[in-house]
C-alpha cells in the first residue's frame, strides 16, 4: 500500500514561515495590466464594429452590382462572353 504524505510546511519554532510569502504586484504593474486589457478590449470592439458595419454594406454593393449587370444584359449593352452569362444566369 502507498502511504499518503501530507505537504511539508517549513515553520520556525516561533510559528513564522521560513520563506516569506510571495509579494503582491505593485500598483504600476496592476495599472499596466488594466491598461493593456482596456486596449485589447477597445481593439476588439473596433474590429467588431467594422465587421458589423462593413459586411452589410458589401452585401448591398454586391446585390447592386448584380442587378446593374442584369439590367445591362437585358438592355443588350453588356457584351460579356459566355462565361459571364453562365455566372449571372441561374
TrEMBL record:
Keywords: Membrane, Transmembrane, Transmembrane helix. The chain crosses the membrane at residues 21-40, 46-69. This is Transmembrane protein. It comes from Acidiphilium cryptum (strain JF-5). The lineage of its organism: Bacteria, Pseudomonadati, Pseudomonadota, Alphaproteobacteria, Acetobacterales.
Amino acid at each position: 500500500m502507498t502511504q499518503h504524505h501530507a505537504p511539508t510546511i517549513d515553520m520556525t519554532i516561533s510559528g513564522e514561515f521560513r520563506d516569506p510569502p510571495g509579494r503582491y504586484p505593485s500598483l504600476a504593474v496592476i495599472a499596466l495590466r488594466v491598461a493593456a486589457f482596456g486596449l485589447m478590449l477597445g481593439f476588439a470592439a473596433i474590429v467588431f464594429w467594422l465587421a458589423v458595419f462593413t459586411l452589410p454594406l458589401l452585401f448591398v454593393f454586391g446585390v447592386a452590382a448584380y442587378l446593374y449587370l442584369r439590367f445591362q444584359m437585358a438592355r443588350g449593352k453588356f457584351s460579356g462572353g459566355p462565361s459571364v452569362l453562365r455566372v449571372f444566369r441561374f
